[in-house]
Amino acid sequence: MNNLNSLHTSFYAIGLSYKKADAEIRGKFSLDDAAKESILAKAKEQGVEALLITSTCNRTEIYGFAAHPYVLIKLLCDSTSGSVEEFEKVAYVYKNKEAISFMFQVGTGLDSQILGDFEIISQLKAAFKRSKKQGLTNPFLERLLNSVIQASKRIKNETELSSGATSVSFASVQYILNNVENVSDKNILLFGTGKIGRNTCENLIKHTKNPHITLINRTKDKAEKIAGKFNLVVKDYADLQAEIRTTDILIVATGAQRPTISKELIYSDKKLLILDLSIPKNVSDDVSELENVELIHLDYLSKVTDDTLERRKAFIPQAEAIIEEIKRGFNAWQETRKFAPTISALKKKLKTIKDAELDYQRKKIENFDEYQAEIITSRVIQKITTHFANHLRSANGSTNEAIDLIEKVFRLEEKTFTEKE
Protein backbone atom coordinates (compact mmCIF):
# COMPACT_ATOMS: atom_id res chain seq x y z
CA MET A 1 0.00 0.00 0.00
CA ASN A 2 1.31 3.47 -0.87
CA ASN A 3 1.85 6.12 1.76
CA LEU A 4 -1.46 7.57 2.83
CA ASN A 5 -1.95 11.22 2.04
CA SER A 6 -4.21 13.33 4.30
CA LEU A 7 -5.94 14.67 1.15
CA HIS A 8 -7.28 11.19 0.45
CA THR A 9 -7.91 9.87 3.95
CA SER A 10 -10.68 10.22 6.51
CA PHE A 11 -10.68 9.94 10.28
CA TYR A 12 -12.30 6.68 11.46
CA ALA A 13 -13.25 5.04 14.74
CA ILE A 14 -13.67 1.27 14.39
CA GLY A 15 -14.27 -1.24 17.16
CA LEU A 16 -16.60 -3.36 19.26
CA SER A 17 -17.93 -3.06 22.79
CA TYR A 18 -20.08 -4.68 25.48
CA LYS A 19 -23.20 -3.29 23.73
CA LYS A 20 -23.20 -5.89 20.93
CA ALA A 21 -20.22 -8.18 21.61
CA ASP A 22 -20.38 -10.73 24.43
CA ALA A 23 -17.38 -11.49 26.65
CA GLU A 24 -16.23 -14.37 24.44
CA ILE A 25 -16.13 -12.26 21.27
CA ARG A 26 -14.55 -9.31 23.12
CA GLY A 27 -11.89 -11.74 24.33
CA LYS A 28 -11.07 -12.74 20.75
CA PHE A 29 -10.40 -9.11 19.80
CA SER A 30 -8.65 -8.16 23.04
CA LEU A 31 -5.18 -6.64 22.63
CA ASP A 32 -2.30 -6.86 25.08
CA ASP A 33 0.61 -4.39 24.96
CA ALA A 34 2.62 -6.57 22.55
CA ALA A 35 -0.32 -6.78 20.11
CA LYS A 36 -0.82 -3.01 20.28
CA GLU A 37 2.86 -2.44 19.47
CA SER A 38 2.57 -4.90 16.58
CA ILE A 39 -0.42 -3.01 15.11
CA LEU A 40 1.41 0.31 15.42
CA ALA A 41 4.47 -1.14 13.66
CA LYS A 42 2.35 -2.53 10.81
CA ALA A 43 0.44 0.75 10.51
CA LYS A 44 3.69 2.67 10.23
CA GLU A 45 4.94 0.32 7.50
CA GLN A 46 1.70 0.92 5.58
CA GLY A 47 2.08 4.69 5.82
CA VAL A 48 -0.80 5.33 8.23
CA GLU A 49 -0.49 8.91 9.43
CA ALA A 50 -1.91 8.64 12.96
CA LEU A 51 -3.46 5.86 15.05
CA LEU A 52 -4.81 5.32 18.56
CA ILE A 53 -5.53 1.86 20.03
CA THR A 54 -7.55 1.07 23.17
CA SER A 55 -8.45 -2.33 24.57
CA THR A 56 -10.24 -2.95 27.88
CA CYS A 57 -12.49 -5.75 29.14
CA ASN A 58 -15.47 -3.83 27.72
CA ARG A 59 -14.18 -2.55 24.37
CA THR A 60 -11.46 -2.69 21.72
CA GLU A 61 -11.16 0.31 19.41
CA ILE A 62 -8.86 1.88 16.83
CA TYR A 63 -9.04 5.57 15.97
CA GLY A 64 -7.04 6.65 12.94
CA PHE A 65 -6.65 7.97 9.41
CA ALA A 66 -7.20 5.68 6.43
CA ALA A 67 -8.38 5.76 2.83
CA HIS A 68 -10.95 3.11 3.83
CA PRO A 69 -11.96 1.71 7.26
CA TYR A 70 -10.97 -1.79 6.12
CA VAL A 71 -7.31 -0.73 6.52
CA LEU A 72 -7.91 -0.36 10.28
CA ILE A 73 -10.20 -3.40 10.54
CA LYS A 74 -7.56 -5.60 8.88
CA LEU A 75 -4.86 -4.27 11.22
CA LEU A 76 -7.05 -5.32 14.18
CA CYS A 77 -8.09 -8.73 12.85
CA ASP A 78 -4.55 -9.66 11.73
CA SER A 79 -3.30 -9.11 15.30
CA THR A 80 -6.08 -10.97 17.15
CA SER A 81 -7.79 -14.36 17.02
CA GLY A 82 -11.02 -12.79 15.74
CA SER A 83 -12.00 -12.89 12.08
CA VAL A 84 -13.27 -10.04 9.87
CA GLU A 85 -16.63 -11.87 9.63
CA GLU A 86 -16.95 -12.04 13.43
CA PHE A 87 -15.95 -8.40 13.70
CA GLU A 88 -18.52 -7.21 11.17
CA LYS A 89 -21.37 -8.88 13.09
CA VAL A 90 -20.80 -6.78 16.23
CA ALA A 91 -18.70 -3.83 15.02
CA TYR A 92 -19.24 -0.12 14.63
CA VAL A 93 -17.49 2.15 12.12
CA TYR A 94 -17.69 5.94 12.45
CA LYS A 95 -16.25 8.46 10.01
CA ASN A 96 -15.00 12.06 10.41
CA LYS A 97 -17.52 14.10 12.47
CA GLU A 98 -19.26 10.95 13.77
CA ALA A 99 -15.88 9.50 14.79
CA ILE A 100 -15.01 12.74 16.60
CA SER A 101 -18.35 12.70 18.46
CA PHE A 102 -17.86 9.03 19.34
CA MET A 103 -14.47 9.66 20.94
CA PHE A 104 -16.07 12.39 23.09
CA GLN A 105 -18.83 9.95 24.19
CA VAL A 106 -16.30 7.24 25.06
CA GLY A 107 -13.77 9.50 26.78
CA THR A 108 -16.36 11.20 29.01
CA GLY A 109 -17.97 7.98 30.28
CA LEU A 110 -21.27 8.39 28.41
CA ASP A 111 -20.63 5.20 26.42
CA SER A 112 -19.25 3.22 29.39
CA GLN A 113 -20.96 0.09 30.69
CA ILE A 114 -21.28 1.93 34.00
CA LEU A 115 -22.53 5.41 33.09
CA GLY A 116 -20.03 8.05 34.19
CA ASP A 117 -17.11 5.64 34.55
CA PHE A 118 -14.09 7.77 33.61
CA GLU A 119 -11.53 4.96 33.68
CA ILE A 120 -11.35 4.95 29.87
CA ILE A 121 -9.81 8.44 29.71
CA SER A 122 -6.59 7.15 31.28
CA GLN A 123 -6.60 4.36 28.65
CA LEU A 124 -6.88 6.95 25.87
CA LYS A 125 -4.02 8.97 27.37
CA ALA A 126 -1.82 5.86 27.55
CA ALA A 127 -2.78 4.97 23.96
CA PHE A 128 -1.73 8.40 22.72
CA LYS A 129 1.57 8.17 24.59
CA ARG A 130 2.24 4.77 22.96
CA SER A 131 1.39 6.10 19.49
CA LYS A 132 3.50 9.23 19.96
CA LYS A 133 6.50 7.09 20.86
CA GLN A 134 6.08 5.33 17.51
CA GLY A 135 5.62 8.60 15.59
CA LEU A 136 1.98 7.80 14.82
CA THR A 137 0.25 10.97 15.98
CA ASN A 138 -0.56 14.26 14.27
CA PRO A 139 -1.88 17.69 15.37
CA PHE A 140 -5.48 16.64 14.65
CA LEU A 141 -5.33 13.58 16.94
CA GLU A 142 -3.47 15.45 19.67
CA ARG A 143 -5.91 18.36 19.63
CA LEU A 144 -8.90 15.99 19.59
CA LEU A 145 -7.65 13.96 22.56
CA ASN A 146 -6.84 17.12 24.54
CA SER A 147 -10.38 18.36 23.84
CA VAL A 148 -11.85 15.04 25.06
CA ILE A 149 -9.67 15.23 28.23
CA GLN A 150 -10.89 18.80 28.81
CA ALA A 151 -14.52 17.68 28.43
CA SER A 152 -13.93 14.78 30.83
CA LYS A 153 -12.45 17.10 33.49
CA ARG A 154 -15.26 19.61 33.18
CA ILE A 155 -17.97 16.94 33.41
CA LYS A 156 -16.30 15.55 36.54
CA ASN A 157 -16.07 19.00 38.13
CA GLU A 158 -19.34 20.57 36.96
CA THR A 159 -21.79 17.63 37.06
CA GLU A 160 -22.55 14.66 39.28
CA LEU A 161 -22.28 12.14 36.46
CA SER A 162 -19.63 10.17 38.38
CA SER A 163 -21.02 10.56 41.92
CA GLY A 164 -22.11 7.74 44.21
CA ALA A 165 -21.39 4.03 44.33
CA THR A 166 -21.59 2.10 41.07
CA SER A 167 -19.99 -1.22 42.00
CA VAL A 168 -20.98 -3.60 44.77
CA SER A 169 -17.48 -3.49 46.28
CA PHE A 170 -17.50 0.32 46.37
CA ALA A 171 -21.12 0.43 47.58
CA SER A 172 -20.22 -1.87 50.49
CA VAL A 173 -17.37 0.41 51.57
CA GLN A 174 -19.64 3.45 51.22
CA TYR A 175 -22.18 1.70 53.45
CA ILE A 176 -19.49 1.08 56.07
CA LEU A 177 -18.30 4.71 55.93
CA ASN A 178 -21.85 6.02 56.27
CA ASN A 179 -22.96 3.67 59.08
CA VAL A 180 -19.91 2.89 61.22
CA GLU A 181 -18.35 5.51 63.48
CA ASN A 182 -14.56 5.65 63.86
CA VAL A 183 -14.18 3.07 61.12
CA SER A 184 -10.37 3.41 61.07
CA ASP A 185 -10.28 1.94 64.61
CA LYS A 186 -12.51 -1.05 63.88
CA ASN A 187 -11.39 -4.63 63.21
CA ILE A 188 -12.39 -5.69 59.68
CA LEU A 189 -12.39 -9.31 58.51
CA LEU A 190 -12.61 -10.10 54.79
CA PHE A 191 -13.60 -13.71 54.11
CA GLY A 192 -13.05 -14.62 50.44
CA THR A 193 -10.50 -13.07 48.08
CA GLY A 194 -12.02 -13.53 44.64
CA LYS A 195 -12.56 -10.59 42.28
CA ILE A 196 -15.20 -8.87 44.46
CA GLY A 197 -13.14 -9.57 47.58
CA ARG A 198 -10.00 -8.06 46.00
CA ASN A 199 -11.87 -4.96 44.80
CA THR A 200 -13.48 -4.53 48.20
CA CYS A 201 -10.10 -4.89 49.87
CA GLU A 202 -8.61 -2.15 47.67
CA ASN A 203 -11.57 0.15 48.33
CA LEU A 204 -11.36 -0.50 52.08
CA ILE A 205 -7.70 0.47 52.20
CA LYS A 206 -8.20 3.49 49.97
CA HIS A 207 -11.24 4.95 51.74
CA THR A 208 -11.17 3.79 55.40
CA LYS A 209 -7.45 4.28 56.18
CA ASN A 210 -7.85 1.22 58.39
CA PRO A 211 -4.71 -0.84 59.23
CA HIS A 212 -6.72 -3.53 61.10
CA ILE A 213 -7.85 -5.64 58.12
CA THR A 214 -7.54 -9.43 58.26
CA LEU A 215 -7.95 -11.77 55.27
CA ILE A 216 -9.14 -15.37 55.31
CA ASN A 217 -9.54 -17.57 52.25
CA ARG A 218 -10.02 -21.33 51.90
CA THR A 219 -6.88 -21.30 49.74
CA LYS A 220 -4.46 -19.39 51.95
CA ASP A 221 -1.86 -18.54 49.29
CA LYS A 222 -4.43 -16.47 47.34
CA ALA A 223 -5.07 -14.37 50.43
CA GLU A 224 -1.34 -14.05 51.04
CA LYS A 225 -0.79 -12.63 47.54
CA ILE A 226 -3.28 -9.85 48.21
CA ALA A 227 -2.09 -9.35 51.77
CA GLY A 228 1.50 -8.97 50.57
CA LYS A 229 0.45 -6.26 48.17
CA PHE A 230 -1.23 -4.25 50.94
CA ASN A 231 0.74 -5.43 54.01
CA LEU A 232 -2.29 -7.06 55.67
CA VAL A 233 -2.71 -9.95 58.15
CA VAL A 234 -3.71 -13.40 56.84
CA LYS A 235 -5.24 -16.09 59.07
CA ASP A 236 -5.98 -19.76 58.44
CA TYR A 237 -9.46 -20.89 57.44
CA ALA A 238 -9.52 -22.87 60.69
CA ASP A 239 -9.30 -19.55 62.61
CA LEU A 240 -12.50 -18.18 61.04
CA GLN A 241 -14.74 -18.59 64.10
CA ALA A 242 -12.17 -17.09 66.46
CA GLU A 243 -11.59 -14.13 64.11
CA ILE A 244 -15.33 -13.45 63.79
CA ARG A 245 -15.51 -13.22 67.58
CA THR A 246 -13.01 -10.33 67.66
CA THR A 247 -14.08 -8.45 64.55
CA ASP A 248 -16.42 -5.47 64.20
CA ILE A 249 -17.11 -5.80 60.47
CA LEU A 250 -17.28 -9.06 58.54
CA ILE A 251 -17.30 -8.95 54.73
CA VAL A 252 -18.15 -12.23 53.02
CA ALA A 253 -17.27 -12.70 49.34
CA THR A 254 -16.56 -16.41 49.09
CA GLY A 255 -18.54 -17.33 45.95
CA ALA A 256 -19.63 -20.68 47.43
CA GLN A 257 -22.85 -22.35 46.27
CA ARG A 258 -24.28 -22.54 49.80
CA PRO A 259 -23.89 -20.44 52.98
CA THR A 260 -20.40 -20.42 54.52
CA ILE A 261 -21.41 -18.31 57.53
CA SER A 262 -24.08 -19.82 59.74
CA LYS A 263 -25.72 -18.69 62.98
CA GLU A 264 -23.70 -21.27 64.91
CA LEU A 265 -20.38 -19.70 63.87
CA ILE A 266 -21.16 -16.38 65.55
CA TYR A 267 -20.67 -15.76 69.24
CA SER A 268 -20.51 -12.03 69.59
CA ASP A 269 -21.28 -9.94 72.63
CA LYS A 270 -20.62 -6.69 70.74
CA LYS A 271 -22.05 -5.10 67.61
CA LEU A 272 -21.18 -6.94 64.42
CA LEU A 273 -21.90 -5.69 60.89
CA ILE A 274 -21.93 -8.41 58.22
CA LEU A 275 -21.92 -7.59 54.51
CA ASP A 276 -22.68 -10.53 52.21
CA LEU A 277 -21.37 -9.71 48.71
CA SER A 278 -21.90 -13.20 47.28
CA ILE A 279 -24.22 -14.76 44.70
CA PRO A 280 -25.83 -17.00 45.87
CA LYS A 281 -25.99 -15.76 49.47
CA ASN A 282 -23.07 -17.00 51.56
CA VAL A 283 -24.51 -15.88 54.89
CA SER A 284 -27.57 -17.68 56.28
CA ASP A 285 -30.64 -15.46 56.63
CA ASP A 286 -31.16 -16.59 60.26
CA VAL A 287 -27.90 -14.80 61.21
CA SER A 288 -29.93 -11.56 61.23
CA GLU A 289 -31.92 -12.99 64.22
CA LEU A 290 -28.85 -12.55 66.44
CA GLU A 291 -29.27 -9.57 68.76
CA ASN A 292 -26.01 -7.71 68.05
CA VAL A 293 -25.74 -8.53 64.35
CA GLU A 294 -26.71 -6.35 61.39
CA LEU A 295 -26.77 -8.28 58.10
CA ILE A 296 -26.67 -6.47 54.75
CA HIS A 297 -27.11 -8.61 51.64
CA LEU A 298 -25.88 -8.03 48.11
CA ASP A 299 -29.39 -7.36 46.82
CA TYR A 300 -29.61 -4.24 49.01
CA LEU A 301 -26.19 -2.97 47.85
CA SER A 302 -27.12 -3.73 44.22
CA LYS A 303 -30.20 -1.53 44.64
CA VAL A 304 -27.95 1.25 45.93
CA THR A 305 -25.82 1.00 42.77
CA ASP A 306 -28.92 0.85 40.53
CA ASP A 307 -30.36 3.95 42.22
CA THR A 308 -27.03 5.72 41.77
CA LEU A 309 -26.93 4.94 38.07
CA GLU A 310 -30.54 6.07 37.68
CA ARG A 311 -29.69 9.39 39.39
CA ARG A 312 -26.69 9.81 37.10
CA LYS A 313 -28.94 9.78 34.03
CA ALA A 314 -30.30 13.17 35.06
CA PHE A 315 -26.85 14.69 34.40
CA ILE A 316 -26.52 13.38 30.83
CA PRO A 317 -27.95 16.57 29.21
CA GLN A 318 -25.55 18.72 31.25
CA ALA A 319 -22.61 16.52 30.22
CA GLU A 320 -23.68 16.60 26.58
CA ALA A 321 -23.91 20.41 26.65
CA ILE A 322 -20.30 20.58 27.89
CA ILE A 323 -19.23 18.17 25.14
CA GLU A 324 -21.00 20.27 22.47
CA GLU A 325 -19.31 23.44 23.70
CA ILE A 326 -15.83 21.92 23.60
CA LYS A 327 -16.56 20.14 20.32
CA ARG A 328 -17.52 23.48 18.75
CA GLY A 329 -14.11 24.81 19.79
CA PHE A 330 -12.41 21.78 18.24
CA ASN A 331 -14.41 22.11 15.01
CA ALA A 332 -13.56 25.83 14.82
CA TRP A 333 -9.87 24.95 15.18
CA GLN A 334 -10.28 22.32 12.46
CA GLU A 335 -11.90 24.86 10.12
CA THR A 336 -9.07 27.32 10.77
CA ARG A 337 -6.61 24.54 10.01
CA LYS A 338 -8.33 23.98 6.69
CA PHE A 339 -7.75 27.48 5.40
CA ALA A 340 -4.49 28.34 7.19
CA PRO A 341 -2.36 27.17 4.19
CA THR A 342 -4.53 29.25 1.82
CA ILE A 343 -4.12 32.37 3.97
CA SER A 344 -0.38 31.68 4.18
CA ALA A 345 -0.19 31.34 0.38
CA LEU A 346 -2.28 34.51 -0.05
CA LYS A 347 0.02 36.43 2.26
CA LYS A 348 3.02 35.16 0.28
CA LYS A 349 1.36 36.21 -3.02
CA LEU A 350 0.54 39.69 -1.72
CA LYS A 351 4.09 40.06 -0.44
CA THR A 352 5.39 39.20 -3.92
CA ILE A 353 3.11 41.90 -5.41
CA LYS A 354 4.22 44.35 -2.71
CA ASP A 355 7.92 43.67 -3.24
CA ALA A 356 7.58 44.16 -6.99
CA GLU A 357 5.65 47.41 -6.52
CA LEU A 358 8.10 48.80 -3.96
CA ASP A 359 10.97 47.91 -6.27
CA TYR A 360 9.23 49.83 -9.08
CA GLN A 361 8.50 52.87 -6.89
CA ARG A 362 12.01 52.82 -5.49
CA LYS A 363 13.39 53.42 -8.98
CA LYS A 364 10.85 56.13 -9.79
CA ILE A 365 10.75 58.16 -6.56
CA GLU A 366 13.71 60.18 -5.38
CA ASN A 367 14.49 59.88 -1.64
CA PHE A 368 12.14 56.90 -1.43
CA ASP A 369 11.31 56.21 2.25
CA GLU A 370 11.99 52.46 2.42
CA TYR A 371 11.14 52.17 6.13
CA GLN A 372 7.72 53.86 5.97
CA ALA A 373 6.72 52.11 2.76
CA GLU A 374 7.52 48.72 4.34
CA ILE A 375 5.45 49.48 7.46
CA ILE A 376 2.42 50.74 5.51
CA THR A 377 2.33 47.94 2.91
CA SER A 378 2.90 45.20 5.52
CA ARG A 379 -0.01 46.55 7.59
CA VAL A 380 -2.26 46.66 4.51
CA ILE A 381 -1.37 43.03 3.70
CA GLN A 382 -2.09 42.00 7.32
CA LYS A 383 -5.50 43.72 7.23
CA ILE A 384 -6.42 42.14 3.88
CA THR A 385 -5.46 38.61 5.00
CA THR A 386 -7.29 39.09 8.33
CA HIS A 387 -10.46 40.02 6.40
CA PHE A 388 -10.16 36.88 4.29
CA ALA A 389 -9.47 34.72 7.37
CA ASN A 390 -12.55 36.12 9.15
CA HIS A 391 -14.66 35.44 6.05
CA LEU A 392 -13.45 31.85 5.84
CA ARG A 393 -13.98 31.36 9.58
CA SER A 394 -17.65 32.35 9.23
CA ALA A 395 -18.24 30.60 5.90
CA ASN A 396 -20.68 28.15 7.58
CA GLY A 397 -20.25 25.05 5.46
CA SER A 398 -19.05 26.83 2.32
CA THR A 399 -15.40 27.04 3.41
CA ASN A 400 -14.20 24.80 0.58
CA GLU A 401 -15.92 26.92 -2.08
CA ALA A 402 -14.52 30.13 -0.56
CA ILE A 403 -11.01 28.62 -0.50
CA ASP A 404 -11.34 27.59 -4.17
CA LEU A 405 -12.45 31.11 -5.12
CA ILE A 406 -9.55 32.79 -3.32
CA GLU A 407 -7.08 30.41 -4.93
CA LYS A 408 -8.59 31.08 -8.36
CA VAL A 409 -8.74 34.90 -7.98
CA PHE A 410 -5.18 35.22 -6.71
CA ARG A 411 -3.87 32.36 -8.85
CA LEU A 412 -2.29 30.68 -5.88
CA GLU A 413 -0.01 28.06 -7.31
CA GLU A 414 -0.40 25.28 -4.76
CA LYS A 415 -3.55 23.40 -3.90
CA THR A 416 -3.54 24.17 -0.21
CA PHE A 417 -6.65 22.43 1.14
CA THR A 418 -5.43 19.74 3.55
CA GLU A 419 -8.49 18.51 5.41
CA LYS A 420 -11.44 16.60 4.14
CA GLU A 421 -14.98 17.08 5.48
Automatic annotation (TrEMBL):
**Reactions mediated catalytically:** (S)-4-amino-5-oxopentanoate + tRNA(Glu) + NADP(+) = L-glutamyl-tRNA(Glu) + NADPH + H(+)
Q: Which residues form the active site?
A: 57
Q: Which InterPro entries does the record associate with it?
A: 4pyrrol_synth_GluRdtase, 4pyrrol_synth_GluRdtase_dimer, 4pyrrol_synth_GluRdtase_N, GluRdtase_dimer_dom_sf, GluRdtase_N_sf, NAD(P)-bd_dom_sf, Shikm_DH/Glu-tRNA_Rdtase
Q: Which Pfam families match?
A: GlutR_dimer, GlutR_N, Shikimate_DH
User: Is Oxidoreductase included in the keywords of this UniProt record?
Assistant: yes
Q: Which residues form the Quinate/shikimate 5-dehydrogenase/glutamyl-tRNA reductase domain?
A: 179-304
Gene Ontology terms: biological process: protoporphyrinogen IX biosynthetic process from glutamate
Listed EC numbers:
1.2.1.70
Q: Which family does it belong to?
A: Belongs to the glutamyl-tRNA reductase family.
NCBIfam families on file: hemA
* Record PANTHER family: GLUTAMYL-TRNA REDUCTASE
Protein name according to UniProt: Glutamyl-tRNA reductase
Source organism (scientific name)? Planktosalinus lacus
The gene that this protein is the product of is hemA
